[in-house]
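_Backbone structure tokens_
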Amino acid sequence: MNPKIVVINLIKDINKFFVLNISVLMLIFSFSLLVGLHDKKEIILLISLAAIASLIITLLTVIVIKRKMEKTIQQSFEKIEMQLYFDELTSVYNRITGMNRLVEEMARARRSGKPLSIAMLDIDNFKFINDTYGHLTGDKVLGQVAAQIKSILRINDIISRYGGEEFLIILPETDEIKAFMALERVRESISKKPFKTGSERIYLSVSIGITEVDPDENSFEAINRADTALYQAKRSGKNRIEVASRFSKKTF
């Protein structure tokens, strides 16, 4: 939320508090005049009641303002977190976060000795979709594809938008064979679910490059190998998967 709007809303709440306080006090003293209170004890009692009423109103107002501030701060932190770590169009991790997560998973794989695979996924003919149907439709296609990837892969698999229509997928504790099987389900799902725009249906497909990560290499070497496999899939006709082994390239 815009800080200026937050301040304006708080000022409005504080003004309401003062108006309410003054109104209550005026009401009590008006009542005293109407009933004609002259006894000192009665006046002191009335003033005490007015003070208690004012204190209750103050406490209630403070509680309301505190809750509003907590909600605003929480929403602001969530928005900042989304902007820092997630891609706005697809709601998956952004490139920087994806790269950081890859470094973390590679370190974890080195410690555990368990396999780690990564994949580069690219939406086929995406430029044609943008040029034909417009960038707004292209943005929605990105969102649908990202949602399908998330719905099929495991909750601990990591998905990030690497750039344009390309996604980096990290599969912990997964060798290249299991990675192929998981991403083949992704490829099939995307190809079977067309994107609807008005009365038209856009049939989508993706090309995918997979590699199993060598614990002793750096993240850029692993990504480069998966990217090379992806471009081989593109050159081989698209809507397919290529697997680049750490030792020798394999094609499925």
Remarks:
- The two ends are 49 Å apart (CA to CA).
